[in-house]
Structures are given as structure tokens and as C-alpha cells.
Amino acid sequence: MTFEIEERITSYPIGHIRAEGMITPETPRRLEALLKAQTDLPITSISLSSRGGNLAAALEVGRLLRRYRIVSSVSIDKACLSACAYAFLGGVARAFETGYGDEPEEAQKRLGFHGFTLEMQIPGALEGRNAAAFVGAVTQGSQVTAGGLADYVAAMDANVEIIGRAAPHGRNQYLYLPVSELKKLGILTDYEKNLGEFKLVPDGGNVQAAFIHDDHQFTIGCSQFGGRLQPVLVFTNTFGKSPGAPITPISPPLKLSRILGSTYRPWTSNDIAYKRFHAHSWITGTAWNPVFGYFHMTVGDSDPTTVALTSQNSAFFHDPPMFHAVIVLPPAEVAVLLREKESYVSLGEQPYPESGWSHVLRTEARDREALAYALRSCVK
Question: Within 13 A of 179's CA, how many CA atoms are on the CB side?
């Protein structure tokens, strides 16, 4: 499979990949290398055009798309068939490209599924380390295994019914479902419903998970803190040059290396005495004076756990027009982020939301894979 990157302009430049050709065992490795190399042009979408190939590799391509929060599509004049159709399911949102203002055709031949047997795999597919993956991820005759393929489809938020419906279709006999059916099965999705909040941001040899909303960004990843690699949460906010002045939206996502390379602002003796970090001592001319005192973690509607910020677990940086709060995530809070379907993170001035100001981030189940990948080097 070949990859071509094109730049698209929204509020800031983003990258789109056009992927064409057979999916081979080398395809996932090449795709991941490409994604990691795009540090200046974030990749947000991919269009797939392929008649299939190695099924195990296709599933790994799909997992990469999900891990990097990439939207998958099929162009108007292209087709994604066989193993490619399963790679397509990895998109965090999935759609058919159309003309401006148009709806995709109900009867379609862009996305085609069929069953898989061991004999249908390309030569060498069952050799070496790929054998176990294929045995657990094929349909044999009309019998669907309970292993890899069904688990993959379910993990991608699609209905596993597609496997059974495709099973009777052999080589070059594709199941082309109408668009309405594809939507019912969760194969074509609503963009906003499935996109989630976090995206992976390559940063040299590291990767962080970042979420931007207008003038602020939350970043979660691994960083050296206190002489060792630890999980950290970074809150970034922009501010106007004077009261009432327009704020500066953040785009594209800030990398942790840039944040940590900005001006470090140490805790003062006054901050330590009052157990609060007073950012207003160096943010001048703003309409509000941020004070950081506490980190909160809430699961659903449960009572929040509260962690007091100190010079031992937090650091602050200044990069006009932005400031950054870097906070070490306690192990219990990391476990919540990676385990629970929904959690809330709050940074505030006081231990209770009704006292002073706070800023809240909500994470959902669809964010967990991105967060786990971003924390993989410092959380076992």
C-alpha cells in the first residue's frame, strides 16, 4: 500500500493521507512510521482505496487509525474491499466522501465485505508470527470464530453482525450494504458522536494525548519530573494582552517539548506558605488572576478525590500569550483515567468547585486507548 500526504486548510493546516493498493504485512509498520514523522502537520484523516490483502495487517492498520484518532473515508471514485473494509472500521469516525452539500448514494459499491477462509489468504500469511493472528481472525466456511475478528469489530464500535452477513460471500463476491444499513450497523458513523476528545500528538520519539477547546488545551503523557519518568497532566490557557482583549485560540496542538521549553516559573516562598500557586504575579494586564491550589478527579457523579498542589508535584511555565500548569498524576487517578467509562478532571483555586474558579475536562470510554498509548512508557 502506498501513502500520499496532502495538506488541507481549516482553522490551521492539517494532513490527509490517501492510501492505495494491497495491504501487506509491512503496511502497518510503514503507516506508523509515517504518522510518527508528521510532527509539524498533524494527520487527522485518511481515505482508503484497496482490493484487500493481508487481514491481520488490515486489523493492525485499523488499530493504528483508532490509536491516532484518525477519521477514515472512501473517495467517490474509489473502493475499499475485503480486508480493507475491516481496516476502514478503525477510523474514529467513518464516512463516504461526497461533493459539497451532497449525501452519499444509498446503493453503493465503495465498501465491500466478504468471508475469509485460510485458503483465501495471500501466500505467506500464515507463516511465522502472523499465524496466531490469522487463526483467531478468519471465518471458515459459514462459521465465524469467536476470536480476533469479532473482538476487533466490537472494539471499533461496529456491530459484529457484519461478519456473519459477509461470511457466505467468497473470493471476489462482495457484500455491498446500502448506506442506511451501514449506518444501522455502526459502520458509517456520525462525525461528532464518534470523534472523542483526545488526539495523539507525535513529539520527537514520544507521543502525547492532547485535547484542544478554543483557548485551552489538556495534555496527558509521560515526562521527566523529580528525576524520573512520570505521568503528567498539563493544563494550558491563553490570555489577552489587556482586560477585554481577544484571546488567542490554540492551534495546532502544543507539544510537551515546547511547553517544558518555555519559561519556568518557580513556586515562591509566598506560594509555599499559602499552599497556592499565584500565576497573577507574572500574568499582567489580564481581567482575571488565576490561582492554582488543587487537582480533582471525579468518576461519574462520585465525590471527587482531591490532591493539593505543591512544588513537589506541580510546575508552572510562561510562554506569552500562554501559561502552563504541569501536574504529576497520582497512580490512583491514572487508574481511573484508564479504567472508567467516564471521568472528570478539574483544576481549581479551592478544594470545592463553588469556591473560586476551576476548569473541567471530561474523558469518555473512546478516549481510553489514546490515553493508554500516551502513558505506555511510564505506566505499567
Answer: 15
What angle, rounded to 10 degrees, do the helices at 27-37 and 55-67 form? Answer: 20
Closest listed residue to residue 348, CA positions, set 358, 336, 334, 333: 358
Cα atoms in the 13 Å half-sphere on the side-chain side of 63: 16
Distances (CA, A) of 57 to 29, 205, 344: 9, 23, 36
Sign of CA dihedral 138, 142, 145, 150: positive
CB 180 within 8 Å of CB 106: yes
pTM of the model: 0.56
Banded pLDDT at 49 (limits 50, 70, 90): very high
pLDDT recorded at residue 43: 84
Residue 70 cell numbers, joined:
484518525
- Domains of the chain are 2-195 (3.90.226), 199-374 (no CATH)
Distance CA 359, CA 263 (A): 23
What is the chain's mean pLDDT, rounded? 78
Which residue is it, cell 453503493?
108
Q: Give the span between the Cα atoms of 375 and 355, in whole angstroms.
A: 32
Under 8 Å between Cβ of 83 and 52:
yes
The whole-number pLDDT of residue 10 equals 52
Mean pLDDT comparison of 85-89, 98-102, 375-379, highest-scoring range:
85-89
- DSSP string spanning 279-310? GGGT--S-SS--EE-EEEEEETTSPPEEEE--
The per-residue pLDDT for 18 is 96
pLDDT of residue 131: 37
DSSP character string of 309-362:
--TTTEEEEEETTEEEEEEEPPHHHHHHHHH-SEEEEEEESSSSTTSS-EEEEE
C-alpha cell at 160: 459484529
212 CA to centre of own chain? 12
Separation of alpha carbons 346 and 360, rounded Å: 4
